[in-house]
Amino acid sequence: MIIDSHCHLTYEPMSSSLEETIKRANNDGVKYFLTISTEDKSFKNILNILENYKSVYGTYGIHPHEAKKHKEIRSRDIMQKVKKNKKIIGIGESGLDFYYNYSEKKDQISSFLEHIDASQNTNLPIIVHTRSAEEDTLRILKQAIQKKNLKILIHCFTGTKQFAFKLLDLGAYISASGIVTFKNSSELANTFKIIPNDRILVETDSPYLSPDPLRGKSNEPSHIVHTVKFLSKLKNLNENELSEITSKNFFNLFGNLD
């Protein structure tokens, strides 16, 4: 059993052929999907998917790129949204993206703090997006944890080895996307090789970041098998062992499903 811990099923081309997309993934051993919220207006589409597909779970949150458009969103608003369906099991994705800076840094940080507060008050994991913002991400998470427990999942990790182990010290789980399979990502692969097995999840981030040998094509949850295959070789495990480990880690973080 494989769990795609981060996908965007409300995005095209998957949203217009969702049943076929999910069937292909099921045929490749993907049992559960976590479809991720990035903005408020599309959350209704996530709720609709959760009602219609038993194997799909969801989150509510505002992507850092969208922070400038959601300055009014507060912790209480996030907590109200996650109560709309018991299959909303996480908060995010939220965090910091200082690579593109599509939203001002102050707006990203403010939004991130609201998501953290909601996560702590609901005891739901926060799904963290962090790019070119290692120092600020660590500082904010560390300060938050000093006040109250926080369940953390770092999605699509592409950071340094030092960053990874500082996150692990905070109790974070770290998710591998198709990027780890890229030929120019050997340093990232070496980092995942030494990250403890009990802290790793797998994801597609579909429709983005299709793994080798499908790099450049639109991604979908069935493609996660290539990431699982790569990581299993990296970790000297068979594919079933790696799948079982990452699924167990998902349940440890998000709780049992069904």
Offer a concise description of the structure.
With 258 residues, the chain is an alpha/beta fold. The chain has helices at 18-27, 43-52, 75-82, 105-122, 134-147, 161-169, 186-194, 224-234, 239-254, and strands spanning 2-7, 30-35, 56-60, 88-97, 126-131, 152-154, 173-176, 200-202.
Number of helix segments?
9
Largest sheet: 8 strands, parallel
**DSSP strand content:** 15-25%
The proportion of residues forming helix, as a percent range, comes to 40-55%
Query: Strand order across the biggest sheet?
Result: 1-2-3-4-5-6-7-8
Termini Cα gap: 15 Å
Mean pLDDT: 97
Structure classification: alpha/beta
H/E series, N to C? Answer: EHEHEHEHEHEHEHEHH
Tally of strands: 8
Low-pLDDT runs of 5+ residues are none
Radius of gyration using CA atoms only:
17 Å
Shape: globular
Walkthrough of the structure:
- The chain has helices at 18-27, 43-52, 75-82, 105-122, 134-147, 161-169, 186-194, 224-234, 239-254, and strands spanning 2-7, 30-35, 56-60, 88-97, 126-131, 152-154, 173-176, 200-202.
- It is of the alpha/beta class.
- The protein is built from nine helices and eight strands.
- An eight-stranded parallel β-sheet has the order 1-2-3-4-5-6-7-8.
- It is globular.
- Helix 3 (75-82) crosses helix 4 (105-122).
- The protein starts with a strand and ends with a helix.
